[in-house]
Amino acid sequence: MRTIDMGAYFVVYNLVIGVLVMLSSEKIGYYAGLLNKAHRERLARFTRLTTFTFGASVAALSATIYIAFFTLRIAT
Questions:
Q1: Which pTM does this prediction carry?
Q2: Best label site of 6, 16, 19, 67, fewest CB within 10 Å?
């Protein structure tokens, strides 16, 4: 019977969530701009940038961890 590596599932799950957050940053920024009419453009731009950056960094970190542990597993 084969052992299931649950850590890899968590890392791939974080990778997918990071990519989805990164791709939806435009809509999140739009809806954040609707909340405050006085500073709509500035708030939408700031939210779009920070959401995209957060999603990209989560995706990059998860991909790096997954590739590193995958290559370590191949070596053994």
A1: 0.84
A2: 6
